[in-house]
Amino acid sequence: MTQTAIRLDESWREALQTEFDAPYMKALREFLVAEKKAGKVIFPKGSDIFRALDLTPLGSVKVVILGQDPYHGDGQAMGLCFSVRRGVRIPPSLVNIYKEMQDDLGIPPARHGDLTHWAKQGVLLLNSVLTVERGRAASHQGKGWERFTDAVIARVNDQATPVVFLLWGAYAQRKASFVDTTRHLVLKGPHPSPFSAHNGFFGGHYFSKANAFLEEHGLKPIDWRLPEDPAED
């Protein structure tokens, strides 16, 4: 995970330089190198680790959606929380996100799980932990990623332009508890997982509320529809 090898928008590279230079990030890089040398498979691939920050420049962030860990199954993780590449089975949590979006906005569920179209419009799809070992959920928690992504959220919080934070589940709500609600809109709900979605996730109208807030502040709303053709992302 050398800085010359990663794909990262320059706005984030500049904003997070002190984090990249910090000892904890050096230790994190050494941990990842050692894991790979030990024959362990790490997801997502190296060029996609910072994909959320590469597709959504700091000054373009309109909405933040927080996840926890990358998917740990083969072919799933792509560097955007809740998102999988076209051709990969849509994960249950994303199925429920699509259901809520259809109820809220009347948008039929997409036939794929690639959320790149959102990211390119200013939806920062940020996991708290950016890597995982294949087949071992939460295996890279406590290695430094949480501190790094706390810094990412802090940089967004410091932006003058109002931002919408969609915080689904207790973990996301704790992580972004410091967000300034006098400037930004924080929408909370249960996690969309099948284990918790029926406890209040459905009916939250997160997408329409987010767009209404953006429009109230003179910002272009998000087109939440996901095109079938990747060329339209």
UniProtKB/TrEMBL annotation:
Signal peptide: none
Occurrences of domain Uracil-DNA glycosylase-like (ranges): 54-214
CDD domains named among the record's database cross-references: UDG-F1-like
UniProt-listed Pfam families: UDG (PF03167)
Keywords: Cytoplasm, DNA damage, DNA repair, Glycosidase, Hydrolase
Active site: 69
GO molecular function: uracil DNA N-glycosylase activity
Reaction catalysis annotation: Hydrolyzes single-stranded DNA or mismatched double-stranded DNA and polynucleotides, releasing free uracil
Entry's EC annotation: 3.2.2.27
Localization annotation: Cytoplasm
Top-rank lineage group of the source organism: Bacteria
Chief location of this protein within or outside the cell: cytoplasm
EC class: hydrolase
NCBIfam families, A to Z: PRK05254.1-1 (NF003588), PRK05254.1-2 (NF003589), PRK05254.1-4 (NF003591), PRK05254.1-5 (NF003592), ung (TIGR00628)
Family, as annotated: Belongs to the uracil-DNA glycosylase (UDG) superfamily. UNG family.
HAMAP family, A to Z: UDG
PANTHER family xrefs: URACIL-DNA GLYCOSYLASE (PTHR11264:SF0)
Purpose: Excises uracil residues from the DNA which can arise as a result of misincorporation of dUMP residues by DNA polymerase or due to deamination of cytosine.
Protein's name in the database: Uracil-DNA glycosylase
Source species: Acetobacter musti
